[in-house]
Amino acid sequence: MGNETVAKTVVVLGAGVGGLTTATRLRGMLPEQDRIVLVDRSFDGVLGLSLLWVMRGWRTADQVHVRPKPLPGIDMRAAEVRSIDTDNRHVHTDSGSIAYDALVIALGAGLAPDRVPGLSDVTEAGIAGEFYTLDGADLLHRQLSEVDSGRITFVVAGVPFKCPAAPFEGALLAADLLGELGVRGSVTVDAFTPDPFPMPVAGPAVGKALVGMLEQHGIGFHPGKSLELVDARAKQLTFADGTREPFDFLVVVPPHQAPAPVRETRLGPMGWIPVDPRTLASDVPGVWALGDCSALMLPNGKPLPKAAVFAEGESEVVANGVARHLGYDAPEPYFDGNGSCYVEIGGHLAAKGVGNFLEAPAPSVTLMDPSPEFHREKQDEERAWMERWSG
């Protein structure tokens, strides 16, 4: 480490996967006198990988809460981020301003259902739901459990969104739940997406395999469908190509957006913060972004998927970059682009996709066949994360 005596301050915004891991890595790297301030709205989070299990009924809401225990040497501030002033290196919150020498933005992604006309209406009418929030997933389990006939449509209402496999896992797990309840034969399940196939970033082979899994479980797949309007009274979806589709119950992946303080920094034209693919550094010196609020472009021109596995991998890279920026010895920051994800298909079986997403000219991803082992692996990951942070 360097021998600077002037104490420095690193501010980390967001206590999700990326923020928690980065803050704790930094505490292990920086001298004691340097401050690490971790800011989060409530320090009451949720494990995203478990939300579909809540929808399926395999977890309760209480089981997937992440309430981080006190982290030694880290100033944990429960505050709402109001704005980020990168010119003067200050973060303004509802409980005061914090000056920083280095800033890590890990504020995640928010939902913007109002971007699709009629979407809020069907949700309020009780004929639509989502599984991207804990309350939503919990309610959706109860709603799906009451369906005994008709048509359920799973619709991706905008890209990008968190966890590219999730809409299709949702459809498979809903079909699994309906089968358990003995009503699957009376319910049609269909999935609609604006993309040409599921998980397009992983390539056509993976997409084709996922379509095969949907078909095998009697789920219709409809690509190239951009949702424009939802009519609550007629129970009808209108797509950009002019087609209309009826539904009895709608499960939607709402449009996602960067949180307001991130959008207002103007660090990125679309709200998401562009970062160097290998270092996660933004265009502003001393500012890094990782996880769902960042936009890391791959060699094929598509963004890296928004998924916790990448946020965790990026945290080591960001911590190394911050330490070097502050004048300390640390490894050269280098994000390797490796990642994996599980695809739940029901029956306590999961497929697993593994690959390198930064490979040129396009990600090299292999989807391994569903097995009970991969489902257990995901359970082990869930358990390890909960034990690490919530004690």
**What is the total number of structural domains?**
2
Oligomer: single chain
Here the CATH topology of the largest domain equals FAD/NAD(P)-binding domain
**Contiguous helical run count:** 9
Spatially, the strands of the biggest sheet line up as: 5-2-1-9-21
Q: Level of helix content? A: 25-40%
Distance between the termini: 31 Å
Gross geometry:
globular
Structural class: alpha/beta
Model regions low in confidence, pLDDT < 50 over at least 5 residues: none
Largest sheet, in brief, is: 5 strands, parallel
Brief characterization of the structure:
By secondary structure, the protein is of the alpha/beta class.
How would you describe the overall organization of this protein?
This protein is an alpha/beta fold and 391 residues long. The protein has two domains: 9-109 and 258-337, FAD/NAD(P)-binding domain; 114-256, 3-Layer(bba) Sandwich (FAD/NAD(P)-binding domain). It is 27% helix and 28% strand. The protein contains nine helices and 25 strands. It has helices at residues 17-29, 51-56, 119-124, 134-145, 166-180, 204-216, 260-264, 308-325, 372-390; strands spanning 9-13, 35-40, 45-46, 65-66, 75-78, 81-85, 90-93, 96-99, 102-105, 110-111, 128-129, 150-156, 187-192, 219-222, 227-231, 236-239, 244-246, 249-253, 256-257, 273-274, 287-289, 294-295, 338-346, 349-356, 364-371. The strands form eight sheets. A five-stranded parallel beta sheet has the order 5-2-1-9-21, covered by helices on one side. A five-stranded parallel beta sheet has the order 11-18-12-13-14. The longest helix is centred in the last third of the chain and has 19 residues, at 372-390. The chain is globular, with a radius of gyration of 21 Å. It starts with 8 loop residues before the first strand and ends with a helix. The mean pLDDT is 96.
